[in-house]
Write a structure and sequence with these properties.
104 residues; mainly beta; 2 domains; two-stranded antiparallel sheet; 1 helix; 6 strands; 4% helix; globular; Galactose-bd-like_sf; FA58C
Length: 104
């Protein structure tokens, strides 16, 4: 899995963390491959995840898993260019299930 974000949290930012409990629910849990941990956002919309790849990268797929009842409904992928302009790449609509979902 060349270039996989697994166990890399330095380039991850999130919109919020439940009760600001970073150790329990922070962004590092997005990529730790443990089924008993997760990023847990605070309430409200929108919520977001930012990944800084530090260099030009070819994204082949995005894998996401939700806890039942807490799935994102309307999700999108955006990129920010070198001028900090945001560009909409695609929308995706994950299912509200616990199984691994793959986009792209």
């Amino acid at each position: 899995m060349s270039g996989c974000l697994t166990n890399k949290d330095s380039g991850l930012r999130v919109s919020s963390v439940l009760r600001r409990a970073i150790k329990e629910f922070g962004p590092k849990h997005l990529v730790d491959e443990k089924e008993d941990t997760c990023w847990n956002s605070d309430q409200g919309s929108p919520q977001w995840i930012e990944v800084n790849l530090d260099s030009l990268s070819n994204i082949e797929e995005i894998q996401i898993r939700f806890q039942g009842g807490f799935a994102g409904k309307d999700c999108c992928i955006q990129m920010t260019d070198e001028n900090n302009a945001n560009h909409h790449i695609m929308d995706f609509y994950p299912e509200d299930v616990n199984s691994l979902q793959i986009s792209f």
